[in-house]
Amino acid sequence: MRETKKTQVPSPMPEKFYRLIDGFRLYFSENCRWVPLSKALFAACELEVFDKLRSASSPQSADDITTALSSDLDATTRLMDTLVAMELLEKFKQGDQWLYSNSEMATKFLTKDSPDSYLDMIALINKTLYPIFGNLESAVLEGTTQWKKTFGMSAEDWFPNVCNTEEAKLRFMGAMHCNSLYASYAAVKAIDLSAYRSCCDLGGAVGTLAYALCQFYPEMKITVCDLEPAVSLAHHFRPSVEACPNQANVSFAVGDFFKPETIPKAELYVLSHVLHDWSEDKVDLILSNVYKCLPSGGGLLICERILNEDKRGPTLIFSLLMLVSTGGKERSAPEFKHLLEKHGFIDVQAKRVYFTQDAIFCRKM
Asked: Looking at the chain, which terminus has fewer C-beta neighbours within 10 angstroms, N or C?
């Protein structure tokens, strides 16, 4: 594996920041108490509190922010003090007045003009995953996703109804992009893929992982294969030549991993956050199609969370999220090994990579 001198890896997201975002699913202990925090963060983002502080020429009082928001002073003060406790705002006293400013973490991840902004993903979580997870009880009783009960429409109808403008589609793709940006670099660096000269990222959306691959493997040609709505928007997320000097090695093709005749040929395939979205029969179909398309000795890289073998730990909650939202599930390393060997793959290896994503690699004999 060869890493070029010009490689520019995006900033990793602090785990503390991620826990705040996912607090409605992943609570953390503070002074021996379990505290959900994310809704306060979601509300602040929806109200653009961090952007209003960013655009101000100096720290602002609660009165200033209340005026900017046309909100209630007492309620706004409570929210801002909560954000201080969450280390998203800083607060100091000037005379008899308390003033607020963004913390470094908020400026980096919670403002619109930051290249590391996570606002699109936060909006998706707040408007979609937060309410659908509220029907977990029904999902457990029924063993089904909860789109109909939550939004009055199926998952298949949700995207065309909600993402019905180019701006809405860009926000959705932006959420997918920022959620996997640093994790993609961590995953492709964890496994030595230098033996492969061609790669196809199936369901690769706007190419986030593909651009990471071409940085670490400058001789690899990578095709991102996805449905037309994703491919048509990919140019909006192309990195600069300075950030990704080998970006010409990345191309896009319209295709569907359920239709093997549309899958481009490659020595290496990637499935990043794909398998956990689908039921067992659909997972079997995807893996069967990949196996058929691979040449002998070809590789498959899967980027997903790996559950603990004993099914303990906070990561397991994401399997419940898959239950309510996609009908899929997360898997442990032994479960991945069994699944992949069932389809003929060999040399299965699983590596812990990052707290949002791990890596599983295998080969075709």
From this structure: C
DSSP, collapsed to helix, strand or coil, labels residue 154 as: coil
Question: Distance from first CA to last CA of the chain, Å, rounded?
Answer: 22
Q: Other CB atoms closer than 10 Å to residue 333's CB: what's the count?
A: 18
Mean pLDDT for 293-313 is 95
Q: Is 276 a catalytic residue?
A: yes
Nearest to 293 by CA among 312, 271, 309, 317: 271
Among the listed residues 177, 276, 338, 343, the single catalytic one is 276
pLDDT digits (tens, 9 = 90+) for 158-176: 888 888 899 999 999 999 9
Query: With contact defined as beta carbons under 8 Å apart, do 71 and 79 qualify?
Result: no
Give the position of tokens 């309620």.
Answer: 75
* Percent of the residues in the chain that have a pLDDT greater than 90, as a whole number: 79
Model confidence over 2-42: pLDDT tens digits? 555 667 788 888 877 877 776 654 444 444 344 457 888 99
Partners of 267 in the β-ladder: none
Q: Which residues of 169-185 are buried (b: 16+ CB within 10 A; e: fewer)?
A: bbbbbbbbbbbbbbbbb
What is the per-residue pLDDT for 33? 42
